[in-house]
Model the fold of this input.
Amino acid sequence: MKVLVVNCGSSSVKYTLFDMDGEKKIAWGLVECIGLDEAYYKRQSLKCGEKKDSVKASNHTQAVELVIKELLDKDCGSISGIDEIAVVGHRIVHGGEKFSKPVLVDKDVKDGLKECFAIAPLHNPAHYAGIEAVEKMLPGIPSVLVFDTAFHQTMPDYAYMYALPYEYYEKDHIRRYGFHGTSHNYVSQRAAELLGKPLSELKIITAHLGNGSSVTAIENGKVIDTSMGFTPLQGVVMGTRCGDIDPAIIAYLIEAYPEFKDGAAINNLLNRKSGLFGISGLSGDMRTIVKAIAAGNKRAKLEYDMLCYSIKKYISAYFGILNGADALVFTAGIGENSPTVRQKACEGLSALGIEMDVEKNKEPLNSERFISAPSSKVKIMIIPTNEELMIAREAKKVLANE
Ligand code: ADP
Done:
């Protein structure tokens, strides 16, 4: 059975085709710069390896058309007809309070997704365009939506509410939603498998640390709390996002600087100009920061210390919320590849039973593994995330009506 996973951004379409017998990736790629004069199409398949072209893709439908053409190509294609694709799984950033699990697309679901445009204006309209493009190019093939927010819908109200006047929750749906849910879900399931215990008996803290980062407290397979909030801006310090700040700073900036008179300018500052980039003045990419620290750059070191400290704060808070933890899992670009961030985020947490094996942590491996010391009560693990596979599994499950 083949499942196509699609992730549509405002100017990109990413895809992966899985053969679910053995959960093998057979073709994957990306069309980017959609809508510009020149778009780019990078793709790989087991049959033909890597190919890159500049292409014409004025909208998502044209981009999806390119993808389907390639999948059907007589030399490099991976399918001989579109009906070989059993189901398409779409990654959707925001499901609001409406969607707490993956759903099969129908008119009501599409209308529900539209209702979430206001709270996810950057992402959901692009996802919607992607769904319509797939419907057009793959008529009759069912689509399933898998939401980044859905896994977090188990949070108790006292964890997801903000202490603003209640009417803003009722009217504007302002509350904590949490993001990266598919990743937190995937790595917590893998952690249970590696620990050899049912997820329903475990307390796990998962740290998804990439360009965007979030930490989540999971008890018995259910999210209790997560660091991202109404948007993916809240929580730990990130590549270009500030994470937690005193909200009064925003009012101060609006009063003090004429350029911050509207929400878009403030959003740009907090989402694109802050974090690693804002403090270092160099880059939002951790690899550049690490090099700058080695060259003696003090602001890069300060930002790195801030980022690690903010992760440690959430780990400690969630340890308390969960009243202990069986495992602490690191995943995503930084979580999987930066031994120094992992080490610093766990430093001085031996009182919580979090003790790292520093040598194991440094091993340059690219695989699932334990990096805690034998004496550590909390098992520290690295688990490479696989959101595409998780979406493919969820789509397959929904199709089978499981
Ligand atoms: P996204 O959130 O966009 O999916 P990723 O999960 O790919 O991002 O993470 C990107 C981050 O991972 C970047 O800050 C990058 O510098 C960092 N990263 C990747 N490899 C390394 C490495 N070897 N050492 C330190 N940081 C790394």
User: Anything to note?
Assistant: The longest strand covers residues 24-32. DSSP finds 15 helices and 14 strands in the chain.
